[in-house]
Amino acid sequence: MAHKVDVMSELAPPVPALLTDYQPGPLDEAVEPDGTVRPGYTEIIGALDSVGLDGLRAAADRLDRIRVKEGISFTADIDGELVEQPFPLDPIPRVLGPEDWAGIGDGLRQRTRALNAFLADVYGESQIVADGIMPASVIERCPGYLPAARGLAPGGRPRAVVLGFDLLHSPSGQWVVLEDNLRVPSGLGYAVANRRTAAAALPMLHPWPGLRSPESVGAALLSALLQSAPPNCRRSNPQVAVLSDGPDNSAWYEHRLLADAMGVPVVQPGELQGDADGVSATVDGRTFGVDVLYRRLGDDEIIDGPPVSESANALLLAASRAGTVSIVNTPGNGVGDDKAIYAFVNTMIDYYLGEKPLIGDVGTWVLADPNQYEGVRERLHELVVKPVDGSGGAGVMIGPDLDDDEVATMRAEVEAAPHLFIAQEVIRFSSHPTLTDQGLAPRHVDLRVFALAGLDGTVVLPDIALSRVALESKGLLVNSSRGGGSKDTWLPF
Prior knowledge:
The protein is an alpha+beta fold. It has 15 helices and 21 strands.
């Protein structure tokens, strides 16, 4: 007699109502191709499904109102104009598993060590050039290479103390580094604000068992900055301050949040005084000495202007060279996160550390090299073309997304000055459920992970990361300054 099959036991779990019309992408981090929810997201999606789409939209409205009230803003490019607007936060959190996070940490600690070794070398003896490992022309043509930045990190401290790495989860399932950010990486404060505002607006998800808190960032950042105290520091307990150009800066909200988290003041260039023997600041009528300045304005605003404050610039450079004040991150680090230099980071890892890379990167052609340019000249419409000194997604041209006229313009720009560009393969990276006007839909996400380099070694911050999301249906640009948004990022214990 044939056995009766229990059909119900073999059926997949029911698809949550929120995902009824959801079409997962090739590498959806939360939803399987058949529409079932991946492990790690089952309870989260269930909690959101319990309030339904209308409830989720109401929560998103609360979230927006809270963020507007808190002044959590960023300057974005809207139709060619820079406009201050609330920094969008999608209500559906992103979860990273312990195995992924462990591999990311190992790879970025290694990458941090190699990049700081390169910065010390390129502003020192340039042994990597003398040994024929890197051509001098690549460094000298780099807009971020500032010869005047020599001597600004006496005492052997790392030139890049706060680093931000932009990662993609590729269709192969591997994490790859898309960009290194060694100048003034933003996002730490916004990641903290994301959790605070999500907790206030999404009671169905907060508190959540086992969720790491990003509030540890203040103590970790302050510890790294204290390790950067100058060799001729005048105090046994160094005074740290955040150096900002004020409310006109696109990340002014973050400057104040991080200063509050560390319990240190925010100072502006015009509030500084002193000489090479020491720097002090006068804020709200109170004068105090300053030993470490966490710099949140650009290199060129200090070294090769137009200056924010000519007298402050001269003071900072003199005191930094004399070892009485530390500027963190050190000006001139743009030579380390230049897009053409990116192509050599794996070479640096081998040269300076004698190790093999622990995390991948994106295949890159340096168009300053005539042979590499010729190799891809006819394929530019298939590639991503980036300016070597670009940041925030500015100037990025994604070939497959351009029309014929835009491709012609791109080719002309590259032909006129190929040394100003690199080309990379297009990576259609992972997507994640995101709230849209039509309901939940997959949107591309990247991940900014932060590392702190100090005399005690490198720490990849264990409790905090920033996920950015492209809000357009086929968009690949997730940068806040290009209209992208963010997600609260949940990290494992």
